[in-house]
Amino acid sequence: MSLLRKKSIVSIVWTYIGFIFGAINIFLSARYLSPEYNGLTRVIVEMGVLFSSFATFGVPTLLAKFYPYYNDRLDRKNSDLLTLALVMATIGFILLAASTYFLKPLISRKFSGKSPLLVDYYYLALPIAFFLTYLNILEAHAWNLFKTVISNFFKEVAFRIANLVLLGAYIFHLISLDTFIILFSLLYGVSFLGLLIYMISIGEINITFKISKLTRRLWRMMVPYVLLMLAGNVVTIFKDSFDQLAISSLHGLEFAAVFTLVNYMVTSIGVPQRSVVSISFPVIARAWKEKNMDKLKDVYAKTSITLLLISTFLFGLVWINFEDALTFLQLPAIYLTGKTTLLLLALAKIVELGTGASGQIIISSRKWKFESYSNMILLASSVPVNYLMIKEYDIEGAGAAVLILMVIFNSIRFFYLWYNYKLQPFNIKTVYGIAMPIVLILLTTLLVNTAWPLLNIALRSIIYVAGFITITLLLNISEDATGVFETVKKRLGITKPE
Q1: What is the pLDDT of residues 242-281, one digit of tens each?
Q2: pTM over 0.90
Q3: Measured distance CA(493)–CA(142) in Å, rounded
Q4: Which DSSP string do the residues of 261-288 spell out, in sequence order?
Q5: What whole-number distance in Å separates Cα of residue 176 and Cα of residue 173?
Q6: N or C: which end of the chain has fewer CB within 10 A?
Q7: d(CA 427, CA 418)
Q8: What CA–CA distance (Å, rounded) separates 323 from 457?
């Protein structure tokens, strides 16, 4: 098994462990918090993430883009790239913190009518932004060192375990609701401090305030890159966060809670993307530096089919069990209204993942400005489209807007790479990856319809999972999936190692 595949698998495993804890947190929040307070916790996180995107100044992508140059020319003790990143992020956060004071009147006007709780707890978005800003920088640094497994553990698992402990303290009446909300805003500090302690322990936090000759030579390239990446990152985050903010402003925090629930289910579909991208990004950056187009084609194709298969597989599992799961968990009836939104958001996510590492390939290329420009166009389109759709069609409008924009945006990326570099990831196996889950979803929902929700979930899941794995292996749709299966067989002694 290649190092790339092995690290991807381990990272995905940790990410899914984190997702399991996250799913428990989401359902416990829906069960024990009122929809309004549940929506509040989700919206302040989205606001903190948005604030963090400003504070980071595009530094994480800077670390990924320029690390190969620093790694080849300087030893790590004399490399000032990490110091430069931390200084820029500190300046960014100070400016962001000052700006929040002037934003308060606007927040009050937009949210006091439908979501007054958000106005009351507005400043709790700042500690979320603070810890997330530095966590993202340490994470990017860890990715460059191929420490993706440990970084994914702290960001995906440690954070959610801490969240579960906090929820437990509230459920068992050890803390008040107000204390819960305040401590909730500090949860990213657990992940940040954990990753920081680990990186220090292995000697990978090297701070130097001596500006290197390499930085003096590259700064003319780095400054415009950072500014454009800042714009691109803000665009991307704002696009993702706008739905929650608009729903809260127009319809109330309880509908934001419904959107959060179905959106988290869709997040399960996108979980592998983070691990695959974190592993492939350094490889892509190196391939561009060495002008290795064959390597780029290989990474592009493999990430596309792998992410497509995993996303369609997970969508099927979520879709066939949605109503039974909510009924079994005895969640408030308002959450059942999110099924149509779930479908629309899931299709958007499948479109995004099905195009593989297209965004990372563009960002790492000499034509990286295109990614920022296209992101700006997407933002210019997404804000009015989302607002009008949400205002007219509630949370279903949010799902429809996301799907429309995702199809357009990823089509532009696809044709750009094909036109400029003759890179495209699709083949007949892509068709198999789309058709197979559709057939299995129809089959399982037609065959299994009992009066017992838990029995429905068990039977449908068994049929769907068995069918999906069998067809994937028989048709050899993904080399990575087949490789994993063969490795498992060898480990179990079913086949002899070569």
Answers
A1: 788 889 888 888 898 999 889 888 877 877 776 677 777 7
A2: no
A3: 35
A4: HHHHHHHHHHHHHHHHHHHHHHHHHHHH
A5: 7
A6: C
A7: 14
A8: 10
